[in-house]
Design a protein that fits this description.
alpha/beta, 6 helices, binds flavin mononucleotide
Length: about 180
């Protein structure tokens, strides 16, 4: 297990979870999930998510247990869905409370449209001491998904000075076949 890198994510419907599971597998690092106690399923839950994101409203979130203090990690990778053009309010809650404890940070955002939502990275940076070092904007299921995920993985591995493990069930040729035209 690579304890120089830590992955932390929030996922409402599982898409960001799947991406972060792949990333944590390839980097062989721990993966922690965030949640709050708001009711976020169904139509009312969807509406609450959108309103919370637009109003930048946050709730208390679960405590996460880490092997070492957050700032001691070489890299902390944060994964969140995009809500109404912003990061999810659950990830915002984490950044508000713990952002200044983070040293080197990388972002993974997932969304359903073709927009890259690069402004979300800048929004998230406002909670950090220094800007993020790597980022990837992914639309799960899109043609370029594997290519851009793997580019991000290479950047993270180079940054942390570690090797990448294969992701079970994936053909290694996928990375070159799925190049996206962004
Ligand atoms: C309240 C809400 C607002 C959303 N807003 C956007 C948006 O502005 N742009 C977009 O492309 N996707 C948007 N989405 C879709 C999610 O970002 C996307 O499906 C994401 O991959 C879901 O991740 P998850 O399964 O980990 O929750 C929104 C989803 C929700 C619930």
């Amino acid at each position: 297990m690579n304890n120089d890198i830590l992955c932390i994510y929030y996922s409402r419907t599982g898409k960001t979870r799947k991406v972060m599971e792949e990333i944590a597998t390839a980097l062989d690092c721990p993966l922690l999930e965030l949640h709050d106690h708001a009711h976020r399923s169904g139509a009312m839950g969807w509406l609450r998510c959108g309103l919370d994101a637009m109003r930048k409203k946050t709730n208390a979130i679960n405590r996460i247990e880490t092997e070492q203090l957050l700032w001691k990690y070489k890299l902390v990778i944060l994964g969140t869905p995009v809500w109404a053009g912003r990061c999810s309010s659950v990830m915002r809650a984490f950044l508000k409370r713990r952002g200044l404890e983070l040293d080197e940070v990388a972002y993974v955002i997932t969304h359903s449209s073709d927009e890259p939502y690069r402004e979300v990275f800048d929004q998230m940076d406002t909670y950090l001491e220094s800007p993020h070092v790597a980022e990837v904007s992914l639309r799960p299921g899109s043609a370029g998904y594997i290519f851009w995920r793997d580019q991000f993985l290479k950047t993270c591995a180079d940054f942390a000075g570690c090797k990448l493990l294969p992701i079970p069930g994936e053909d290694e040729s996928n990375a070159s076949e799925n190049k996206e035209t962004e």
